[in-house]
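G., the chain you wanted modeled:
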Amino acid sequence: MEINQIQDEIIDEFGFFGDWMEKYEYIIDLGKSLPLIEEQYKDESHLIKGCQSQVWLHAAEMDGKVQFTADSDAVITKGIIALLIRVLSGQKPKDISHADLYFIEKIGLKEHLSPTRSNGLVSMVKQMKMYGLALQAKP
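Predicted structure as tokens:
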């Protein structure tokens, strides 16, 4: 499935919830189903800078597509990275680096996060796009 199709699915899913407490619960549930990062990647080099919580992110290329795994020490943050992984994992590096992640705005996520969590979201997106660029440049 393409990035925009996945984003549209997420927008539809968030449309079912009446208020932000329900949406937060859904985000937390998504975090519980996150494909966990291997312990060896829970180190300083995989830590996303700029996040209030600790977030580790690993990317590996398989058959021309990027597979992300992650973990966080905070439940909301874990859910947010799970959403990003759902959209970007399994995509081509070029598509990741050029992705317009409009779903963040459409579901109102950024405006319902604290300023520090919002900065963390930006850092997560930036790091995932950097992985896309790096893997795109690989021969």
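The first strand starts at residue 55 and ends at 62.

Shout if anything looks off.
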